[in-house]
Amino acid sequence: DAGVTQSPTHLIKTRGQQVTLRCSPKSGHDTVSWYQQALGQGPQFIFQYYEEEERQRGNFPDRFSGHQFPNYSSELNVNALLLGDSALYLCASSSDPTGFEQYFGPGTRLTVT
Amino acid sequence: AQSVTQPDIHITVSEGASLELRCNYSYGATPYLFWYVQSPGQGLQLLLKYFSGDTLVQGIKGFEAEFKRSQSSFNLRKPSVHWSDAAEYFCAVAPMEYGNKLVFGAGTILRVKS
């Protein structure tokens, strides 16, 4: 049973550029959440997608946007990258919006120079 | 302010010794509670969870946690630590009033000395 997968593993971008990160949820899961984990900190909730719609959003600017596809996979897009966007981006999946048990992928390490 | 607090940034224990990692939360209603472990360069693995019922919950890898409502705490314990337990441990809560998003503590880095 494949768990949550994310791509790419690592990414280096320049300030001002745009980036797209991808996530495939665990089999049988239909809800995807995204978290940002800065170095030395706990993950912070960005947003959650269910039925191709954003259901919840954390305290992140509009530069952060996402999408969920009919097969439940998801993308995280960040525009106008800032140095402070450098972090590990984690995707988590659960079985429905009330599914509190979330399973995390290995993350994408984004470095902004 | 509503938050999750892990008061210990680093903890070092000897292999074979017991372990307790502390976690306190401040939310109005009792949230759902979780402990995750993260090895270097890896994602988060769920160790255990508390939703309701028995306040002592068992998890994977020999870990257990006890929910104490009066202290708003959910401390993680292990009777005998192995060198492979060295990692960073995160307490997380899902506050009822905020849907099912997880709010994480800052983490505790566990070092195991032989």
Protein architecture, described:
The complex is a heterodimer of chains A (113) and B (114). Chain A has 113 residues and is an all-beta fold. Chain A has no helices and eleven strands. In chain A, strands 2, 4, 5, 6, 9, 10 and 11 form a seven-stranded mixed beta sheet that branches. A four-stranded antiparallel beta sheet of chain A has the order 1-3-8-7, with no helix packed on it. In chain A, β4 and β5 form a beta hairpin. Chain A starts with a strand and ends with a strand. In chain A, 39% of the residues are buried. Chain B has 114 residues and is mostly beta strands. Helices cover 0% and strands 51% of the residues of chain B. Chain B is built from no helices and twelve strands. In chain B, strands 2, 5, 6, 10, 11 and 12 form a six-stranded mixed beta sheet that branches. The termini of chain B are far apart. The mean pLDDT of chain B is 92. Classes of the chains: A mainly beta (113), B mainly beta (114). The A-B interface holds A 4, 33, 35, 40-45, 48, 55-56, 58, 90, 92, 94, 97-107 and B 4, 32, 36, 42-46, 49, 51, 90, 92, 94, 98-107.
